[in-house]
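Supplementary Methods, section 5.1.

A reviewer requested that the exact input to the structure prediction be made available. We therefore reproduce it here, unchanged from the version used in the analyses.
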Amino acid sequence: MKEIRAIVRPNRLPLLREALRGIPNFPGLTLIKAEGFTAPASVGKRTVREELTDYTPKVMVTVLVDDDMVAEIRDTIIMICSTGQIGDGIVWTVPIASMHRIRNGSDMLAEE
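The structure derived from this sequence is encoded token-by-token as follows.
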């Protein structure tokens, strides 16, 4: 089991939602509002004002998936959210060591 996390532009969400819903057995996702900035070395010279106000709205998408779905979901996120511009975002995968239902405490990884 893995967690896919991605920081993406909010305006890409409608297209991303549609694409992910088209994947058979897609488990669903969670969205978290986020703000951030690009690493200074990856952009040109900036004014002091730009340095202090360069936070841009983003959204973190998280998806818990079986290992065999990781590549398809990750690739879909990259394909849909890429505009070719700095600030498109980033996607990464994290292993899940344990996962339990809050409702009854059952071990969801043991259920597989």
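The beta strands are 2-8, 30-36, 56-65, 89-95. These observations are discussed further in the main text.
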